[in-house]
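Open question from group meeting: does this chain pack into something compact, or does most of it stay loose? Before anyone orders reagents, we agreed to write out a predicted structure and look at it together. Recording both the input and the output here so the notebook holds the full record.
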Amino acid sequence: MDEIHIDRVSFFGKHGVEEKERRTKQEFVISVRLGFKTRKAGASDRLADTIDYGETRELIRTVIEGKSCKLLETLAEKTCSAILKDGRVRTVEFSIRKTTMWKNGVPGITVRRERGRR
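Structure tokens returned:
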């Protein structure tokens, strides 16, 4: 399966277990890989035949800058569900890192989701 990817895009949101984390914006760095058949777009050279990077980035931004969540897992599920609404996307690999939480280290998670599987 071909992949479209966006790496190391950052947005600011108010997410975390602690109340303080949900009051103050913090940086979240995201990388995403979308399993998608690119052959049609490669032959046609038309944006309509592929996944628009800009639209995907905005979808991610909407989730990260939206309603506060306690867990990165919740943000990942919300984002993957939104991406998979595009029926052309077969798989999503979504990584999110919380860059400002610690002075020494960066926590985060990576989830993989497939169309039709939970």
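Observations to bring back to the group:
The chain has a mean pLDDT of 94.
Helices lie at 39-44, 53-64, 72-83.
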